[in-house]
Design brief:
The chain has 248 residues and is an alpha+beta fold. It is built from six helices and 13 strands. The strands form three sheets. Strands 4-5-8-7-9-12 form a six-stranded mixed sheet. A five-stranded mixed sheet has the order 1-2-13-6-3, with no helix packed on it. Helix 3 packs parallel to helix 5.
Amino acid sequence: MNIKFSFPGLNNIICVFGTRPGGQSQGPYAANNISLEVGDDPQNVLANRKKLKQDIGVNKWIELKQIHGLDIHFDLDEENLQEIKNEGDGLATQKKGTGLVIKTADCQPIFLAHKSGRFIAALHCGWRGNRADFPVIGVQKFCAHYHTPPAEVLAVRGPSLGTCCAEFLDFSQHWPQEFASYFNPENQCMNLWALTRDQLQKAGIRPENIFSLDLCTRCLEELFFSYRREKICGRQANIIYISQGNRI
């Protein structure tokens, strides 16, 4: 089971937000874990990856060892289905059929696409990424590399930790005061969804070009892995690619 999203007018840009059901992993990684880095049986992970790759129709699977940083890699060509060679939290490409993979279990997968349908990017943004302004930096690097203004970029944020569950019992320990307006002292939770939207707008993306899937990974146990809920768990794959046809 995958959740598909289409940018208005960009039928050649395929966005897939993965879910937990459907794979062959066992125990805390059941069932569709796609991460090689969480302790799951590598053979099960590889089987899950191969099936997902086939189901969505990408030629190459490109991913990073995600480190909650600010680095973006452009136009990587070597597939990472069985081995991860590069570190970072952003991927971008102009190559058709190349799937940019973001692994999540509460963090925000953010996809970017140029209105021409020629350039795409995928960002991994946890709360540390928000604190470091990674949505802004990611858009800036994407636009600088492909020589395009941010007003021509569309963005979508996928399922992630919701306003109900992004709990920080000691706000001041984790966040500078400038982020206080996003903190609800009643439930001690951050509104990371609103923060990301504001950061994308700050980067120059038009409000009407910012989309979101407001599904909380911690609440929806049957659908999503959640580190906040389980600690030891799998990761779902979120993939964007430029199709070689006009299908979804």
